[in-house]
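Case study: Stage V sporulation protein AE.
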Amino acid sequence: MIFIWAFIIGGLICVIGQIMFDVFKLTPAHTLTALVVAGAVVSGLGWYEPLVNFAGAGATVPITSFGNSLVHGAMAEAQVHGLIGVITGMFEVTSSGISAAIVFGVIGAILFKPKG
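Here is what the predicted structure looks like once written out:
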């Protein structure tokens, strides 16, 4: 059953993004930013963790999870280091994913020739 809920919740997040493209005519950058901010707000309200517990990968794979990671890291480090922890916590939690994206992007650019 967890697979069905993951599919439904992940699909709903993607449908929201598609509606932002088609109905509201938002650019990809605006849609991406809105979904990250939405994930951060939902996480700040304490609702994202229950969603992850319910939907698993359906909630951790979409871009809204990045906003959740930012808030989660900032809040955890703020408890330990105060105000400076808010900034360092965001980088600490998300640095491995961002680093991997950069490294694999460079490898992909080296190995493959774009069609132009």
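For the exam, be able to explain this: The two ends are 44 Å apart (CA to CA).
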